[in-house]
């Protein structure tokens, strides 16, 4: 009796004056969140660059959550960006380089992704989408309209060969012809453009996704140095004049892997000579120029957030800050650059603030750039796709996130060295072949490892718990006396190799839960589980990850065994199904 009265009463209220108010409330809570995504180019995490950007720290990191173990899956702009915007590992995009035939914008188009990638999906989900800055390499004066990049309500892209000219950026807006900004600093140009798109976005009733991708702190490149006959000259980034005087006393962190007295690393890295003082000084200067160049980005972020605060959308907007890949200067004796699987190159900053995200928190679970699109889908309430190789980051309280302890790191092709002393590489080369490798970075309960297999047969294993700077390669499979994690070292290596065998060709859920491929009964879900001695003989028998030779691209025929053994019971092992 009482209950029905209440129902009737609320029903009565619902048809009277409560209607508009309730509708309004509902519309507010239904409105999907906006996204402001800022991604720098080649910004390191490990060299401490984020410590020098106070606005990014105070207005994003401290106002939100820091994902302290966030990685890229390929440490090179174009492959990393295509993986990010498709949610797939590079072996599933086959966009593995910055230019054709293996990569670049034309390869991205040829693979069919221009019709089937994040901006298209998000527009279909009701979003207005905007992008300004660098989208990907080889989107150029001659390729930008063959066809135009799809899925954006507003776009204004940097075009090659002028992408990295700090004082002669060329942009291409929507379907208009390219326009040169000779004499203007690239960061001033993108600041104008991104504020313009933010204003457009704020005028519409629809939610928005705005991506802003400045070139800083990438090296400066002048056109003419980009042809294949003339090796690319990548020189120090150019700060805005108002930042030139900063950080005169700052030096690169002198970590144990900085210009080490003994050689470290594998392949070409292990052949580098010790740097002399002039080269070290040049590295410190290069670093300062990067920090100075980042100041413009710091101001840009400040301006964008201030504009959001002036609107009524700040509390309904996720603000994300990250980089497309990391960077090294001097670690393992390397001249400036990226492309390796070492910590400096694969770790990037990832800060996110927004509705429901706790302030000042640090999350240590592992995440990667292929988790970003699944994360944006989840935050926007869009159902996840089956072809995602990643899984949402644990942000929402009721998240479909599958926690994972592995990162699959892949690379095909050459390492390109940057800066005035780029040619201190092996034999005076600035472009070094034999930089094709695959690796697994594992961060689990009680272990912190990096295992790599290179195209020339080199292997690396680092125990980052005792060796966080990766200076002692402990890969010695023939050594039967050494132990790791309480097990003979070779038994641990057998597990890591079997995991990498799955990861090298994984797709969708097998990238997210790789141990299930080897142990379909789900009795093994982590390296720890797999280390049980009952599986020793089984893992011993697994085919080993290898390459036929060093190639610059992804040809299955070159990639060694593709199928491993599956554990059914103690007696019968069969190939994966
Ligand atoms: C953005 O593009 C989508 C897809 O073409 C369209 O439905 C939507 O109306 C556009 N938004 C604006 C503000 O024009
Ligand atoms: C700037 O870029 C344009 C192409 O957009 C080019 O035509 C021009 O020569 C460049 N100017 C300089 C000074 O390099
Ligand atoms: C990073 O930079 C900050 C700010 O200058 C400094 O306090 C800190 O010691 C630096 N950390 C390293 C590892 O160099
Ligand atoms: C460098 O190599 C020598 C000779 O192998 C070894 O004795 C020394 O401990 C190594 N130094 C470091 C810092 O690893
Ligand atoms: C330091 O090394 C560089 C690169 O090998 C070389 O060009 C330079 O002459 C060396 N400087 C000194 C003072 O030895
Ligand atoms: C590259 O690796 C091949 C083996 O695949 C080897 O023969 C060659 O010497 C290596 N080149 C360099 C520059 O290390
Ligand atoms: C195995 O490794 C241990 C520890 O690094 C070392 O002391 C030992 O000499 C090695 N044994 C062989 C046979 O190389
Ligand atoms: C990747 O692309 C290259 C170049 O187009 C092609 O030769 C190769 O077969 C492709 N690899 C796979 C696995 O599809």
From TrEMBL:
The keyword rRNA-binding appears for this protein: no
PROSITE patterns linked to this entry: SULFATASE_1
Any single GO BP term: phenol-containing compound metabolic process
Reactions performed catalytically: an aryl sulfate + H2O = a phenol + sulfate + H(+)
Positions of the Sulfatase N-terminal domain: 33-382
The entry's keywords: Glycoprotein, Hydrolase, Signal
Pfam families in the cross-refs: Sulfatase
Keyword Glycoprotein: yes
Top-level taxonomic group: Eukaryota
EC id: 3.1.6.1
Annotated signal peptide: 1-18
Modifications after synthesis and translation: The conversion to 3-oxoalanine (also known as C-formylglycine, FGly), of a serine or cysteine residue in prokaryotes and of a cysteine residue in eukaryotes, is critical for catalytic activity.
Protein family per UniProt: Belongs to the sulfatase family.
Name of protein: Arylsulfatase
Species of origin: Aspergillus avenaceus
């Amino acid at each position: 009796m009482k209950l029905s009265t209440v129902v009737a009463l609320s029903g009565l209220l619902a048809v009277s004056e409560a209607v508009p108010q309730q509708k309004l409330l509902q519309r507010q809570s239904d409105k999907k969140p906006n996204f402001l995504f800022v991604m720098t180019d080649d910004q390191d995490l490990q060299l401490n660059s984020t410590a020098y950007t106070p606005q990014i720290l105070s207005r994003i990191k401290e106002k939100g959550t820091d994902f302290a173990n966030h990685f890229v899956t390929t440490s090179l702009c174009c492959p990393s960006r295509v993986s990010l915007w498709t949610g797939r590992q590079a072996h599933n995009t086959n966009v593995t380089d910055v230019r054709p035939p293996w990569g670049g914008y034309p390869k991205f188009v040829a693979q069919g992704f221009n019709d089937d990638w994040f901006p298209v999906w998000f527009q279909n989900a009701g979003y207005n989408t905007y992008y300004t800055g660098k989208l990907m390499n080889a989107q150029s004066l001659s390729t930008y309209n063959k066809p135009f990049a799809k899925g954006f309500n507003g776009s204004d892209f940097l075009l090659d060969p002028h992408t990295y000219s700090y004082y002669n950026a060329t942009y291409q807006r929507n379907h208009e012809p390219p326009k040169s900004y000779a004499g203007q600093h690239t960061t001033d140009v993108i600041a104008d453009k991104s504020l313009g798109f933010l204003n457009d976005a704020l005028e519409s009733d629809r939610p928005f996704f705005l991506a802003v991708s400045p070139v800083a702190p990438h090296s400066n490149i002048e056109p003419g140095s980009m042809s294949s006959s003339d090796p690319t000259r990548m020189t120090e980034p150019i700060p805005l004049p108002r930042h030139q005087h900063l950080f005169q006393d700052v030096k690169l962190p002198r970590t144990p892997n900085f210009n080490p007295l003994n050689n470290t690393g594998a392949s070409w890295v292990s052949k580098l000579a010790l740097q002399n003082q002039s080269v070290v000084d040049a590295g410190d200067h290069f670093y300062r120029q990067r920090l100075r160049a980042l100041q413009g980005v710091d101001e840009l972020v400040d301006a964008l957030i201030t504009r959001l605060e002036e609107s009524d959308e700040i509390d309904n907007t996720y603000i994300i800050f990250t980089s497309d890949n990391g960077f090294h200067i001097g670690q393992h004796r390397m001249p400036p650059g990226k492309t390796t699987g070492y910590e400096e190159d694969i770790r990037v900053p990832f800060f996110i603030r927004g509705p429901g995200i706790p302030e000042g928190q640090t999350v240590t679970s592992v995440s990667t750039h292929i988790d970003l699109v699944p994360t944006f889908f989840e935050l926007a309430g869009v159902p996840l796709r089956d072809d995602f190789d990643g899984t949402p980051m644990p942000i929402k309280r009721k998240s479909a996130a599958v926690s994972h302890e592995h990162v699959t790191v892949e690379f095909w092709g050459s390492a390109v060295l940057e800066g005035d002393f780029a040619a201190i590489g092996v034999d005076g080369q600035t472009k070094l072949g034999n930089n094709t490798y695959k690796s697994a970075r594992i961060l689990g309960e009680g272990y912190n490892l990096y295992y790599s297999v290179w195209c020339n047969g080199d292997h690396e294993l680092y125990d980052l718990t005792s060796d966080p700077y990766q200076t002692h390669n402990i890969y010695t499979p023939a050594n039967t006396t050494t132990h790791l994690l309480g097990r003979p070292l070779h038994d641990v290596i057998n597990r890591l190799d079997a995991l990498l065998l799955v990861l090298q060709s994984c797709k969708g859920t097998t990238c997210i839960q790789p141990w299930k491929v080897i142990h379909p009964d789900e009795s093994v879900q982590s390296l720890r589980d797999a280390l049980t001695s009952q599986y020793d003989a089984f893992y011993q028998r697994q085919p080993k990850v290898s390459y036929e030779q060093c190639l610059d691209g992804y040809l299955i025929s070159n990639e060694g065994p593709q199928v491993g053994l599956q554990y059914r019971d103690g007696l019968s092992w069969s190939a994966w199904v």
